[in-house]
Design goal:
The protein is an alpha/beta fold. 57% of the residues lie in helices and 11% in strands. It has 16 helices and 8 strands. Strands 2-1-8-7-6-5-4-3 form an 8-stranded parallel β-sheet. Helix 7 links the parallel strand 3 and strand 4. The longest helix is centred in the last third of the chain and has 39 residues. The relative contact order is 0.15.
Length: 363
């Protein structure tokens, strides 16, 4: 049995943190599904910027949509959804087999809306309707302004991938929004089975403190935060509040471990995947990490439901001068700013390509 299948059998879903037209066209994504137990994928503005800028695979689509009168965000969203619809269709058998728990793809609302609650709600509804696929998550950031948008989207029946979570407290805020949305649906006589995942970003913690802590603490903070958050996740699933909802047919908002590619070249390239394996969770990983784990990853017993030694580890970081609450806030702000930067670069790239292709066609 291969390593990715072992991880899948442990109960963790493996999702690819990438999408390009090339891996759809050449069968790579189908191969990952068939051979490496990949059961979903995620996307973000940076991924699409690199995909569109790195090849000419999108040129015909850009020109066609521009000639039809689309530009800017409207052009990009439809261009991205073309890829994501194809990927969603590949995952649809998994989605059906697992009763909607697995087999998902994700599309981001505009990062420019991170501080705009009403705008995020409207965009989430629009993307969900435009995608026309039941297994497409709309990604909404778990920022203070995003939390009420998440609740409203869930209440409206829009499946949500809550992104940009960096701590247990961020996760609990996202979980509370999900629970409120489901409870409101039940009170209104609506189906409570609206799926969601809560995406905890891991490796950015260690990158942020790499030069601020002793060598023996490097590459341990992200894992400790993951363990602490997993404990909170397990506690919530065992709570009376959740059990009441589950008995009425609701599915849990699964914890998703994101940003699990190792950024330190001196650390194991499977570090986070191995440390954060756990049942009833998702790990979304870059292609490089997926292949590395398939080649030489080790599947252990999984994270401890009580968080293991995470609090002792976090105390060592506190003793070294790291304020994890302040850093979590900083990382979320920086993450939102990074997505805005990528989004603007992406729209600039599409505008430049549109002009170049139009001029070439008219020459």
């Amino acid at each position: 049995m291969n390593k990715t299948q072992q991880l899948h059998d442990l109960g963790q879903s493996l999702w690819l943190d990438n999408i390009t037209r090339e891996i759809l066209d050449n069968g790579t994504l189908s191969g990952y599904i068939d051979n490496l137990s990949v059961t979903g994928l995620t996307s973000n503005p940076t991924i699409f910027d690199e995909a569109i800028g790195g090849t000419n695979a999108y040129d015909a689509g850009i020109l066609e949509k521009a000639e039809a009168g689309l530009s800017g965000e409207a052009l990009f969203v439809e261009l991205a959804l073309e890829d994501l619809r194809r990927a969603a269709d590949l995952f649809r058998p998994i989605f059906d087999k697992t009763d909607r728990v697995d087999g998902w793809v994700s599309m981001e609302v505009s990062p420019l809306l991170a501080a705009d609650t009403a705008g995020s709600i409207a965009a989430a509804k629009q993307i969900h309707a435009q995608a026309a696929r039941p297994n497409l998550f709309v990604k909404i950031p778990g920022t203070p302004e995003g939390i009420p948008a998440i609740e409203e989207a869930i209440f409206s029946g829009v499946p949500v991938n809550v992104t940009l979570l960096f701590s247990r407290e961020h996760y609990l805020a996202a979980a509370e929004a999900y629970l409120r949305g489901i409870e409101r649906r039940l009170a209104a006589g609506l189906d409570p089975k609206i799926e969601s995942v809560a995406s905890l970003f891991v490796s950015r913690w260690d990158k942020a403190v790499a030069d601020k802590v002793p060598a023996e603490l490097r590459n341990h903070l992200g894992i400790a935060i993951g363990q602490r958050t997993y404990r909170a996740y397990c506690d919530l699933l065992a709570s009376d509040r959740w059990q009441k909802l589950a008995k009425q047919g609701a599915h849990p908002q699964r914890l998703l471990l994101a940003s699990t590619g190792t950024k330190d070249p001196n650390a194991s390239d499977t570090l986070y995947v191995e440390a954060l394996a756990a049942p009833e969770t998702v790990d979304t990983m870059p292609e490089k990490t997926l292949r590395a784990f398939a080649d030489h990853g080790i599947v252990g017993t999984g994270m401890a439901k009580d968080g293991g030694d995470c609090e002792n580890t976090l105390k060592r970081f506190a003793d070294a001068g790291i304020d994890v609450d302040a850093l979590a806030k900083q990382l979320q702000i920086e993450g939102a700013q990074s997505f805005v930067k990528s989004w603007k670069e992406l729209l600039d790239r599409i505008a430049d390509k549109t002009n170049t292709l139009a001029n070439a066609g008219g020459a």
